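Hi R.,

Quick one: here's the Leader peptidase (Prepilin peptidase)/N-methyltransferase sequence you asked about.
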Amino acid sequence: MLGQSLFLTIYILTIAFILGAIFGSFINCMAWRIANGESVTKGRSHCAVCGHPLGALDLVPIFSYIFLQGKCRYCGKKISPRYMIIELVMAVAFVAVVVRFDVTFEAMRYLVLICILMGLSLVDLDKYIIPDRFIIAGIVWWAVTLPLMEEPWQMQLKLGLIGAFAIAGGMLVLSLLFDKVMHKESLGGGDIKLFFMTGLYIGPWIGLFNLILACIAGIVFVIVLKQKKIPFGPAISLATFFSILFGCEVVNWYFTLL
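And here's the predicted structure, written out as tokens:
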């Protein structure tokens, strides 16, 4: 984006920020409905406490929460700050992806992937489960966007499948061995499926870097949250986000040391 005028750059990044906040709001709503057994496609958005349908002024990403001082307009109960936080996080994530990949099909591919990762992470945080619909959506989106990338789709297909099966397969074998020795579940099936799906996008070498990052993120979550058990999906998703942005440079730097 350095070759563009300053005004155009600011304009594009502003649009990316707004779109990120909007999608963050939608994903928050969708994830809450999935976690609570509600239909994603039917019914208006409503207060999680009193159930009152929300109006247009209640649904402006970020600003509605600020202006309403974190309370429902109708019942006065406090609204979880998670809504505004996710909207801000998604807004910043969209900007970061556009800065990294410019306005390209590659950026579009990763923006949709980030939305999928955020959705499954929120459900995993609430219910300790990663619904298959997110994994399927990620796989289908990867396949659909193969012809749109600069790299030949045959090479993408080859590296993607190698990365997916190598990382997910390796984690499956290790988890089964650990389960047998420790007599308890070490890694959920949803986490392994998530490693498979993300491996399609980033291939084997960045996939290995992603695995290391995910383990580090998981340890940090355990320390910060002070819980013996945490959902691993958010850690994998966070690691994947950073792997998308910086994984290629880190892997190339590592190979220069060999």
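The chain has a mean pLDDT of 91.

Cheers,
M.
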